[in-house]
Design a protein that fits this description.
globular, Serine Threonine Protein Phosphatase 5, Tetratricopeptide repeat, 434 Repressor (Amino-terminal Domain), mainly alpha, 574 residues
Amino acid sequence: MAEEAKARGNAAFSAGRFEEAIQSFSEAIILAPTNHVLYSNRSAAYASLHKYNEALADAKKTVELKPDWSKGYSRLGAAHVGLGSFNEAIAAYKKGLEVDPNNEALKFGLADAQSSASRSRAPPSAPPFGNMFQGPELWAKLTADPTTRGYLQQPDFLNMIQDVQRNPNNINMYLKDQRMMQALGVLLNINMRGPTPEEMEVPETEPEPKKQPAPEPAKKPEPEPEPEPMEVSEEEKEARERKAQAQKEREAGTAAYKKKDFETAIQHYSKAAELDDEDISFLTNRAAVYLEMGKYEECIKDCDKAVERGRELRSDFKMIARALTRKGTALVKIAKCSKDYEPAIETFQKALTEHRNPDTLKKLNEAERAKKELEQQEYFDPQLADEEREKGNECFKQQKYPEAVKHYTEALRRNPKEPRVYSNRAACYTKLGAMPEGLKDAEKCIELDPTFSKGYTRKGAVQFFMKEYDKALETYQEGLKHDPRNQELLDGVRRCVEQINKTNRGDISPEELKERQAKAMQDPEIQNILSDPIMRQVLTDFQENPKAAQEHLKNPQVMHKIQKLISAGIVQMR
């Protein structure tokens, strides 16, 4: 189960869904708490979200579990750079190089940290584009993007990046290199090549395959007579005529397509492909027509031909990506079960390695989502779900909480709409100290069945252990609306009131009070109350004008907000 959660996390990370990746890696860590790779992966996901404190904690855990693993030091260095702790980052990278002296990632990280440290001591003077290559997330972004990932294996590309890092003004020397433009686009989160008319699967006019321009003749100090036009051979003349005729056939095919005259469009595109086999756009256009007609097998064949011929001709990578995207769309159309989506997903991923088109990425995400939904439908079995739940209950009684989580998770895969399983797994997470996961399961339990009192006791217990006594009190009170005589809920209310009264009496240590107040200040509701000008005046009157304060308490809304601050430990009444 840990490997499955890890695989889901890796897939989410590759697709840029970093929050989802963190959740999956966290689930895997609960099941395999000594697996250093899981902490390393979660550290990378946190760093991608700029949550460098969390990334640092996971990186330290990685190094603690596996001191001889070089990637742990790479994660540690990246987190320190993100926090601006360049000296600590340099130390981490150097420590990693002691473990693995030839590790290129550590060498690049060390150079980046040293460069950042130097810049932190010097006044900025870099051009805007050059500054894009100075951030700590540079290598993470270039690695995460399928297009630029391959460039990192090319020494000349790496030399360009390092040169720009040393001197940002040198970026102007490399802007003619398509790889540098692509890298710049990734860092800016924009498409540097402009939009493609892919959205409606309409055949489009595509560019001729790129050819190297002929060198311009050297300029002479004085103009010379124009050279006589060169004679063109009959073969070359015939080839030009065939290309021109092919373009006319393409235009006729597109016109027919727009009129929904698909058969005529097929004829024109077929004729164009016969006249000029060096332009794969005729094949991709014909594939689009077949796709519209529902002839998916013919569409796939044309796309395969276009890709094969495009490789031979070294066609524009956008044209190859277009053919692959169209093939993936056809494969989705003929998919009948979850496994049928796998070749479509693989095809979309190949298209993205050629050209990161937003429409292709959207199609990939939709295919992955459809596959997951079908998997759940195919896996659905309430009887097996009950059997797994019972196994989980037995493990829970034996205090084998990780094993219980495994069985409850399998039960939810078999029947994701069973609130009791979410309640049981929330109890396991609470025992394991995984409070965020426990809270999430308890809330899901309540969402599925708002009348199920166990959901409220689970949620209240988690909030109580997190010392959010005001929130726990609200949860228990909400549960009592559905089950007024439930003893667990009544006991929960009593415990919360005792803790809140302790705070008001000053019966808790200053450290605990400070911790509660700091946590409460992160609550958006508390923040809104304290930022309200009226409430600020009310709090001032409590200190300076008791008579006015008594008048404020007659207002139910003000009284509710005051009570909220008291319960959270922000205000103490003595």
